[in-house]
Every structure is written in structure tokens, then in C-alpha cells.
Amino acid sequence: AQEEAERQRKAREQEEAEKQRKAAAAAAAAEEARKQKAAADEAEKKRQAAAAEEAKRKAEEKAASAPSSMADLLRTDFDVELLAQRLFALKLRVDANVSNGSIPPHAVLVDYMEDNVGAGVRAAAAQAPQDVKDALRNTFAEMGWDLDANSVNSDVLVTVQNLQKVLTKLCGMFPRTSVPATAPAAKRPEPNTTPTEEELSSLTKACERLWALDVGRLQQGVQYVLDLQGGKKPYYAGDVAPNKLFTHVDERIFTENKTFGTFRSLMDNYSRVTGTKEVVTRAEKAEQDAFLKAIADTPVIKYVSAYLQRKNKVRNTADLMDKLEDMWFKLYRRDVYGDSSGFEHVFVGEVDEGEVKGMHNWIQLYTEEAARRLNYLGFIKPRRRFNPNDPFENDHLVTLQFSWEGVTKPVSTSFVGVSPEFEMALYSLCFLMGQEKTPMTIGEERVVVTVHELGRGMIGTAYPDLPDN
User: Fold this and answer.
1) Which residues are marked as active site?
2) How much of the chain exceeds pLDDT 70, in percent?
3) Please, which residues have CB within 8 angstroms of residue 311's CB and are 6 or more apart in sequence?
């Protein structure tokens, strides 16, 4: 029995020793594999670093001769300001995404580059001198983008951070020339505000003339930048726009231009919910008068006055301004007497029975979004452009969905970037001519201007829209 016990003990010791030997061998093999993988990873990292360094060296060599100065380029036929504006607009959008932590997937970023860099920047630089094209090509190559092929260069990974660095560098190379918020009126030639016989016989032609006379209209990409993001159908309730609609608005317009400044001062004079009687204080009445006085001398209002005098609708400009005060600011009943007005409904917006009504003004949209009271939810499909060949959001008309302090408006259309006096003139002309729907063309886009009366001689609603076909 003792011998059998001893034999079993030795057998167990041998079995344990064999297990330990195999475990040690496995551990040694794993360690060797780890070392080999680490060596391979280090070698790959060095290879990538060397490739990136080589690409950077080649790009620096090609960019050794700096492009022409902005002063030199401005004296040529090449529209360098357009290139500078597009680079600036791209940089604002990318900066907004980075600051918000909204980093797109690689595939989405590549699509964005193809549309906005490939189509937009290359198109703006099509007639540029060769040194400008070389500077663009070599700078984009630093982030792994082949500008000529409009595609990814596989040697370098394309990231939104690298795009931000490249755009910052390019905006330094091609800075925008100094653009005031609004050019002083004295420096502009006085536009002709006399209606033609053709315009007098066609309200459509008259509305299109107003568009041409809107000297206060802002320039997209310079004074304001939109980020339309995702599109949707009106019945889709989700948010397809994680970022703000307005990436940038030049706030100087509200201090340097009286019509913009006095218009904005009216935005906080109203209760947003119908059923509450509005109380117009002396200060608020003074703000209304200041706005009407500011727009009275603008080309669009002068044109409307001349047009309506020819139609025997008003006696003179003073008569027109009295009509504008009544039709826009006189209080009327929606739920209770004195709870609404044409100006409040169209430009400021109202909440009536749990629905957002009116609010067809881009300045109000921007103001409420900046104050975090409005959440932009996406544009409404299908989206048509004023210029289908231009990938930038330079349209002056958008149809969108938004939520205002928790209340959603499924579909809303607004002009964007236009002056306050243009919208007042356009809607007032159509209203006083008694035409509810007026088609007009802006750029390459057909627009239908709709106005409806509420009560007697007062505007119930007014807004632009796109025709069904």
C-alpha cells in the first residue's frame, strides 16, 4: 500500500511538472508574439510617419514660391474675393462642428469634401493664376486631399481637425477684403425707383423690381452663413440638424443699419401666445415710429409709393406710411380683441392652440436661435436651389422645420438675408394691390408671394413659398 501511494504521488508530481512546463512554454510563445506585434506596429508607425513627412516635404517644396498677394490678385480679372469668401464660409462651418464636438464619420467627411471643396473651391479657383492653384493644391495635400482628383490621398488620413488647420492656413493666404456690414447709402448711386409701364401692367414684374432694388440685402458667405445640414419630410418629427441653422451673422448690421436695428427692437414687444391682449407702451409706439421712419427713405419703399400713386392707391409717401402703420401695427382679434397684429404674426410669430403660426422672418429665427429658444430641426425636402450648380447654401429662401420653446412648426418658409424694408415693401404692395398670390422669379427660382387679409384693411398673414411644380 505504501509503495502504491508513493507511486501515485510521483505520478501527480510529474503531471504537475508537465502542466507547469506547458504553461511556461505558452507564456513564452505569447510574449514572443507580443514582441513581434509591437515591433510590427512600431515599424508601421514609422513608415506612416515617414510617408507623412515625405508628403509634407514635397508639399512644402511645391509651395516654396508664395502665391500672388491679395493686392496683386485684386488687380487681375480673377475673382479672388469669391475664393476668399468660400474658404471663409467653409471654415466657419468646420469651426462650428469642431467647437460643438460634432465630428462626422470619415465617409460623411469625404462626401462633404467632394461637394464643397471639390465643386465649390475648385470652381472659384478655375480662372486663378497658376501659383494660386498650386497653393490650394499643395495645402489641401497636407491633409490628405488630392484637389485635382477631388478624392482622398491614401497616404494621409482625412480628419475634420486637419481640414480645420488647412482652412485656417488658406484663409490667411487669401483673406477677405474688408466688407462693411452695409455700405453707407451716400456712397451708393441713387437707384431709379420709377416703375416702368411693363411693371405697372404686371405685379409680378413689380415684385421682381423690388428684389433688384433691395440694396440692403446681405451677402451669403460674408455677412451670414447657413448650415442647412439634414433634410426631411414635413411629417418626420425627428431632429436631423444637430447644429444651429445660422453659423454666422455679422451683428454690425443691427448697429450700422437703421432699418435692421429698429426692426430688431420690435421683436420683444409682443406676447407669443394668442388670447392675451397686447399692451402697446409709449416706448413701443416710439419704436414702431422709428422703424417706419427708417424704411420710408429706402429705394424699395420709394418704389412702392411711386407705383401705388400711379395706381391711385395712395396720394403720397406720407399717405403710404399711414397705411403701413394701420395694416401692420393696428391690433385686431384672433382669440380676444387686441391680441394680435399683422406685424406680430408675420415677423415675430405666435402660438395659437398649441401651434406656431406665422414667424416668417429670418432675423427673428436667428435671434430666437441665438437665445436658445428656437431649435432648427432641418430643411424640408425636396430642396431646390437658386443656382443648382452652386453647392453652397447661398439661397435667399429656405423651407424648414423648427421648434419654438417646445412647440414645433412642421413647415415654414422664409426669405433669408433680405432687408426688413424689402419684406415690408413686397407684402404691402401685393396686399394693397388686392392680389393674394403673386408669382415672381428670384435668380433661377420661382416664388409665390401669399398675403391674406384679416378684418378690414389689415394683414392676416404674408409669406413666400415655392410653387408645387
Assistant:
1) 345, 360, 409
2) 86
3) 200, 433
Amino acid (one-letter) located at 199: E
Pairwise CA distance, residues 210 & 390, whole Å? 24
Question: 109 is written with which cell numbers?
Answer: 467627411
Give the three cell numbers for residue 264: 430688431
Most confident by average pLDDT, 9-23, 50-64, 88-102:
9-23
DSSP letters along 131-199, please? HHHHHHHHHHHTTTEETTTTEE-TTS---HHHHHHHHHHHHHHSPPPP--SS--GGGSPPPP-PPPHHH
Kindly state the cell numbers that stand for 82. 469669391
Strand pairing report for 151-152 and 374-380: unpaired
Q: Is pLDDT of 237 > 50?
A: yes
SS3 378: strand
Residue 140 near residue 55 (C-beta atoms within 8 A): no
d(CA 236, CA 234): 6
Please give the Cα distance from 86 to 16 (Å, whole number): 74
Calculated CA dihedral for residues 314, 320, 325, 328, nearest 10 degrees: 80
pTM exceeds 0.90, yes or no = no
Task: Round to whole Å and give the CA distance between 365 and 359.
Answer: 8
- Rounded Cα–Cα distance for residues 413 and 398 (Å): 6
Q: Which of 179-183, 394-398, 458-462 has the lowest mean pLDDT?
A: 179-183
Residue 82 amino acid letter = L
Q: List the Cα angle 402/408/411 in 5-degree steps.
A: 60
Helices then strands, counting H and E runs in the chain, come out as: 17, 13
By C-alpha distance, which of 106, 209, 199 is closest to 159?
106
Q: Whole-angstrom Cα distance, residue 209 to residue 303?
A: 9
Task: Look at residues 464, 349, 390, 380 and name the one whose alpha carbon lies nearest to residue 220.
Answer: 390
Look at residue 277 and give its three-state secondary structure: coil
Asked if 253 and 260 count as a contact pair (C-beta separation under 8 A), the reply is: yes
